[in-house]
Amino acid sequence: MPDVSQLNEAKRNHLKTLGKVLVCWATTMSTSPRADVLPPPSDASIRMLQHPTLIDRYDQFCKSQVIDGPCLIPGPLLHGGGNGLCKRELGPTEQIDLVCLPPQVQIRRVFPAGHFQGPPDRCGEGNLQYSCDTPPTVSDQFCSGKAIGDQCDVGFTVDGKQQTEVGVCEAGQQRENRYYQGRYTVSRPVIQCQPTASVTRKMTETSLFKKLLR
Questions:
Q1: Using an 8 Å Cβ cutoff, are 199 and 72 in contact?
Q2: Nearest Cα residue to 165 out of 189, 198, 204
Q3: Rounded Cα distance, 171 and 189, in Å
Q4: Interatomic CA distance for residues 153 and 166, integer angstroms
Q5: How buried is residue 136: exposed, middle or buried, by Cβ count under 10 Å (0-12/13-18/19+)?
Q6: How far apart are CA 97 and CA 56, in angstroms?
Q7: DSSP category for residue 106
Q8: Cα–Cα distance for residue pair 18/30, rounded to 1 Å
Q9: How far, in Å, CA of 10 to CA of 19, rounded?
Q10: d(CA 169, CA 188)
């Protein structure tokens, strides 16, 4: 367990970082002529910086509640399994969660060139860079010539090493962010090879006693 001096030093470093973030945001707000400036940091992110050891919840793979401690998620890498580290992150409800993060899986998908569908409220404008009608469905290289529900072999990279696992062809949407007289998003239907399963996390609330100790 780290001593008090180490914890105080960590807190001072995080407060310095917080100060830099707030100064940067204030400078942006005062000097930017645009209306869509960066939003201010949320209360939860400030709380996370001010309390570098605080945990509101933890998943079943980080029961030890040790930040940066080792963890293991059973299952194939493509499904989110493997050896990882327990890391703090902001959860969907603005809570500080400690979750096991295995090595990141990188899938390089290749889709055929083609049209995308733009937002309905912009159809009819000049210089359109997209179609107003739904484009035909295209497949990634792993599901080429296959139908939804077919088995596929998806190639991916973990820690620089190329691997292959069995997946299933599923329907999805490919989206791209573009800019022309304002930001907008275009999309088109696709068929892509996806994992047959994914990790299900069960979150547990940290006891008040343990929060006080932190």
A1: no
A2: 198
A3: 7
A4: 5
A5: exposed
A6: 6
A7: B
A8: 18
A9: 14
A10: 16
Tell me the pTM: 0.60
| Interatomic CA distance for residues 52 and 103, integer angstroms | 23
Distance CA 118, CA 129 (A): 8
Give the Cα separation of 140 and 110 in Å (integer). 5
Contacts of 165 (CB under 8 A, 6+ apart): 76, 77, 78, 153, 154, 156, 195
Reported residue count of the chain is 214
In contact, 103 and 74? CB cutoff 8 Å: no
**Residues 6+ positions from 159 with CB-CB distance below 8 Å:** 103
182-204 core/surface letters (b: 16 or more CB in 10 A; e: else)? eebebbbebbbbbbeeebebebe
Distance CA 99, CA 116 (A): 36
Residue-level pLDDT, tens digit, the chain, 214 residues: 444 444 445 445 544 544 544 444 444 444 444 444 455 666 778 888 888 889 999 999 999 889 999 999 998 888 889 999 999 998 887 889 999 999 888 999 999 998 898 888 877 666 566 788 889 999 999 999 999 999 999 999 988 889 899 999 999 999 988 887 778 889 999 999 999 888 889 999 988 767 766 6
